[in-house]
Amino acid sequence: MRLLLVEDDLMIGESVLDALRGEGYAVDWVRDGALADTALRTETYDLVLLDLGLPRLDGIQVLKALRARRDATPVLIATARDAVASRIAGLDAGADDYVLKPYDLNELAARIRALLRRAAGRAEPVFTYGRISLNPATHEALLDGEPLALSQREWAVLEALIARPGMILSRAQLEEKLYSWKDEISSNAVEVYVHSLRKKLGADLIRNIRGMGYMIAKSPAPGAGGETA
Ligand code: CA
User: Which terminus of the chain is less hemmed in, N or C, by CB atoms within 10 Å?
Assistant: First the structure.
């Protein structure tokens, strides 16, 4: 999952960035509203964490412009505890939820998971697909109830696909989930992670749709996942 962090305070931004990367998200960080606006016009994000008090363009303006483009990217606004009016303005301008500053990083992570879940049309906090289950809160992956060791990027590829069964994700779309601006991407990175996931989960789970990308079937075949045949 790829997130945009919009926060002008250097120290706060660094701690939030660390915390979100620790949760396994690819995160881009911008420190003013104009850069946020540009990033949102040019890149695709799964969620935006938007501070409202920002230089150059305030958060409400960034949010209004986003929604005016009919862009439904989930937005979590951050406001001071006593700033009720700006919270209301933010929600009415199209924010999906809010967090209070100073951030409680555990609460922030939980609200992000809840929003991502809702955006994917799910109510349950754990992904289950056939014999596989993924828990974004604990980063625990299970196969037939047994712990399955996945690297952070294997997890990210599998989560992206399992969140959208039946939908083809192109290599570029998967790369976007895995990397932020600063990361170097090798040209076959996605193939490498798909290959290692197939070794762990069976060759049939992740399908390669020639010339288009990768997908997981809309519903699991009997015994899907873990078959090495
Ligand atoms: Ca600020």
Answer: C
